[in-house]
From TrEMBL, chains A, B:
Keywords on record: FAD, Flavoprotein, Oxidoreductase
Keyword Iron-sulfur annotated: no
Any single Pfam family the record assigns to this protein: FAD_binding_4
Coiled coil: none
GO molecular function: FAD binding; oxidoreductase activity
InterPro entries, per the entry: FAD-bd_oxidored_4_C, FAD-bd_PCMH, FAD-bd_PCMH-like_sf, FAD-bd_PCMH_sub1, FAD-bd_PCMH_sub2, FAD-linked_Oxase-like_C, FAD-linked_OxidoTrans_Type4, Oxid_FAD_bind_N
Gene3D superfamilies linked to this entry: 3.30.465.10, 3.30.70.2190, 3.30.70.2740, Uridine Diphospho-n-acetylenolpyruvylglucosamine Reductase, domain 2, Vanillyl-alcohol Oxidase, Chain A, domain 4
FAD-binding PCMH-type domain location: 46-225
Organism annotation: Hymenobacter coccineus
Protein name: Dehydrogenase
Cofactor(s) needed by this chain: FAD
Amino acid sequence: MPDFNALTPALLVQLEAIVGPAHVATAQRVPAEEYATYGQDHTEDLHFAPDVVLTPGTPEEISEIMRLCHAARVPVTARGAGTGLSGGALPVHHGVVLRMARFNKILQIDERNLQATVEPGVVTEAFQNAVQAVGLFYPPDPASKGSCFLGGNLSQSSGGPKAVKYGVTKDYVLNLQVVLPTGEIIWTGANTLKNATGYNITQLMVGSEGTLGIVTKAVFRLLPYPKQNILMLVPFRQEAQAAEAVSAVFRAGIVPSGMEFMEREAIAWSSDYLKIPLTLPEDIKAHLLIELDGQDLEYLYKEAEQVYEVLERYDVGEILLADTATQKDELWRIRRNIGNSVRYNSVYKEEDTVVPRAELPALLAGVKEIGARYGFKTVCYGHAGDGNLHVNIIRGDLDDEKWNVGLREPISEIFRLCVRLGGTISGEHGIGLVQKGYIGIALPDINLNLMRGIKQVFDPHGIMNPGKIF
Amino acid sequence: MPDFNALTPALLVQLEAIVGPAHVATAQRVPAEEYATYGQDHTEDLHFAPDVVLTPGTPEEISEIMRLCHAARVPVTARGAGTGLSGGALPVHHGVVLRMARFNKILQIDERNLQATVEPGVVTEAFQNAVQAVGLFYPPDPASKGSCFLGGNLSQSSGGPKAVKYGVTKDYVLNLQVVLPTGEIIWTGANTLKNATGYNITQLMVGSEGTLGIVTKAVFRLLPYPKQNILMLVPFRQEAQAAEAVSAVFRAGIVPSGMEFMEREAIAWSSDYLKIPLTLPEDIKAHLLIELDGQDLEYLYKEAEQVYEVLERYDVGEILLADTATQKDELWRIRRNIGNSVRYNSVYKEEDTVVPRAELPALLAGVKEIGARYGFKTVCYGHAGDGNLHVNIIRGDLDDEKWNVGLREPISEIFRLCVRLGGTISGEHGIGLVQKGYIGIALPDINLNLMRGIKQVFDPHGIMNPGKIF
């Protein structure tokens, strides 16, 4: 554990000179309620207060901040929109929080090259809309896309429903401008689709949860926008069959653009939360939300027929084929708001389990069995096409002891099951703070020591988002 | 520069005990001609003799070899099929060459999860054929796919014609078993489509040119095999227009599965070399080979019509639409054998330039201008959809001085042009030995020092494929 120093008044004066007084917040200067938000994200009910919150405006300002903090051994934690689910943005060792909110510009949409250069404080959905306006497509779409920042997506390599066909954030990053913990500003690669020039520093940065540097610009590749899509909601009478059908669709040669699993309670809570009426017959235990997309509707209907043929092998209820844009939007809103509805209902812990997709039935059965054995309830949903199941452990009436300590063993069991099935402990939320204690289940010491060694190369004083991952 | 030791007779005895005498080759034990092949690859006419060539059979044997060589500070260079174009497999500091030829098994094709586990000595095309036999698709297809090894593809993140739609080797790797330079055996990740569990060691290994460890198993993701394709050969009267048309096709919303550029001489040399007759009217200066693929032929014809509409804007000759499997095969063989035909005609240096695809006309014009100014001839071809242009500098009657020294400045000019256009100095061949002197054009010291630091973490004695990249 590196030795950190607290922020001194002298350092605060220097930092203020860099960003200007309007961009400095401290517990003394802003209302307590506002200041508290900078120490929180969407992870459980955790809170850690920073010594100061800076909102820099340029990479050069961040560079100067990093040089000072590196020399003074004061921790620095970058903060996007605060929608993270593993505590990655929490300043657990206090020090400086760098709010990236002013890095909010789309610098260029290059229609000739199907690329865009953006700042990390751009909201994901705003970016998607901007490129769609010129016929282009940026697929990664986490559930929080309406508020999360691209910078946060980069730090966790966020996914979302479209990942099954289009991949996750890492698959769209060509090049990153990064301020290193020691203050240097680098570009990690080139603005090209291929690059075999030295080690892949770009992909090392993506998913490193803000522990290796601060992204200040990103160049993303884009695709032509798929003009057509078909969306269907498929009710299953057995959860395991819903999970099995996922694999069967792929084996039939179809790559859907969305393949989402929702157990009964997930869809029920979310439609209640949104006040969208939805018929849920008693015998329905789970749903798959399946989207097909492309440029040609006629061809998509052919694909949809093939999907129907696959589904006929299972015990499914009446399939709802969304036939208006409004209906599609409602179904997607239900899916996207499961997390919010769970949060609305109860404090919860979310485990971002991931396995090879055909192992999903085994994972789901295992989670339920472990929950029954230890006496807790889970609400499960997620990106079934990727084998990525979000397991929400509901606090309900669990006491503090059980909630804070008693869940460690069953969560470990769930993670050990993931690893046994060929999977790992996080698919898209990252390790951050809350999964740190479990990383040894997925990665042995030799792997962790390599990661620690890399961290040391980038950040010799360990000031960059300390207390995360390992 | 680390200090290396030569192989001692005592160490040779120990190494022989590990792999068995049948799997040890030295200059004394095998014919000179055979031994010479282990010091060469497809890069120019370079040759470096190893002290010993070992052909291990298991990761555990490699682990023992690495422990001994690490302790003795003897260099180790892994060797695939020796088809590399940047000298990555050349044992420039002598020592041990590890031939991976016995790692030639496809261990599992997992049809449930669309994944396969393979050893690195499997020939790329053999793997493609094996998965195709069960309806699956492994897209990366370097020109040498009939002889190159998957391990070599991993070390350079090889691409090929299909990269434009399907990405390169790195995009298919889920997990790697690696023997570290210090002898430990690790898995880098998990067998999942998504993974946000610590730093991306998998992608750090891919493209690291055998300098960080030795891949002993790889888990690849697969796709459903696209059953249909359309292939067209489009002749252009102006080279620049061929390069411009590439971008226009993408902007029309089409993502071809191949989009290859061949200047006149490239296609002429290759068809001569293969003795495939091809009509080449006097006024044709370049060709695009465009492939569309998918599951539905009817839809592909719609797309082809859209491609024709785009091409009508340019000064093109008669488009050849390949209408039999044989004709398609011939066209692809011509494209794939350009490198061989150039090698057959003359000693050459190949520069693996890459730029954002719309900058291809500027790159091509620049290369020709530089060639004219310095007095050398180039034959250019490559993956236009990726902006990846292979520039072959033909030795012809250049004298030794001009060939060995005089080309440094014009090659530097070509690479500086790539970087100015947003590109870099290698798209898919790697830096290896021959581009090492130019890497500073693409990456400043701060980037290179990060890479050196990472190398030091993995390989404290620097014995793993020394003398490459930086």
